[in-house]
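User: Hi! I have a protein structure encoded as tokens and I'd like to know what sequence might fold into it. I'm fairly new to this, so please keep things simple.
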């Protein structure tokens, strides 16, 4: 099973490496089309960052054991489907940048920052032997900020390019898989931290932030 998972992960890595190349070819506009060129550069840089995060940062600090399940690999394939959907659909639509584009870029940047802050906390916890339960910073927003940030990215990236069909793998595959992974982690965290995690879970939503957060201790 581990060999199969490693093979699938390697194939996913090859798919991921190809995304910025295909994206640059498909999304690069005619000369002097500055907004479209900026969006093409944004897409290529984002995908490159995502590859680093998936195969180096996350693998080192967050989920080092691939035998914990195939959901990590399947989630990666779902996200690859979103990205390939964007590079196929966006050049066909040729939609000019508008407020959807600006909003999408803002959401992506917020999600990336949130994800890195959360992974940094998880790296500290891992170095301490997993004994600390983080409840502040990004973990005060939701119990699973890494998954929350990834779900935001899965929706915002198609929105940036008006690639609405690319939302299908996000809604039908990626987000449900992230919810499944979060629920599996919930059970592990309850076993590890017991009543401390139960109290934390009662105060903090799992994946969807509250519009009006509760006060601690209320």
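Assistant: Happy to help. Inverse folding works backwards from shape to sequence: for each of the 218 positions I chose a residue that suits the local structure. Here it is:
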């Amino acid at each position: 099973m581990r060999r199969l998972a490693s093979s699938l992960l390697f194939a996913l890595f090859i798919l991921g490496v190809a995304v910025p190349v295909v994206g640059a070819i498909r999304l690069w506009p005619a000369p002097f089309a500055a907004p479209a060129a900026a969006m093409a550069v944004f897409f290529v840089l984002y995908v490159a960052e995502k590859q680093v995060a998936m195969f180096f940062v996350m693998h080192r600090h967050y989920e080092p054991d691939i035998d914990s399940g195939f959901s990590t690999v399947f989630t990666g394939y779902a996200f690859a489907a979103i990205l390939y959907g964007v590079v196929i659909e966006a050049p066909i639509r040729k939609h000019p940048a508008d407020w959807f584009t600006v909003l999408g870029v803002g959401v992506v940047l917020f999600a990336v920052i949130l994800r890195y802050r959360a992974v940094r906390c998880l790296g500290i916890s891992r170095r301490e032997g997993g004994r600390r339960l983080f409840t502040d910073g990004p973990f005060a927003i939701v119990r699973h900020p890494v998954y929350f940030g990834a779900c935001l990215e899965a929706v915002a990236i198609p929105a940036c390019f008006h690639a609405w069909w690319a939302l299908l793998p996000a809604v039908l595959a990626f987000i449900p898989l992230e919810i499944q992974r979060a629920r599996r982690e919930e059970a592990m965290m309850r076993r590890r931290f017991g009543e401390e995690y139960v109290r934390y879970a009662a105060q903090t939503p799992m994946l969807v932030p509250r519009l009006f957060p509760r006060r601690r201790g209320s």
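A useful reference point when you look it over: The first helix runs from residue 2 to 27. Feel free to ask if any position seems puzzling.
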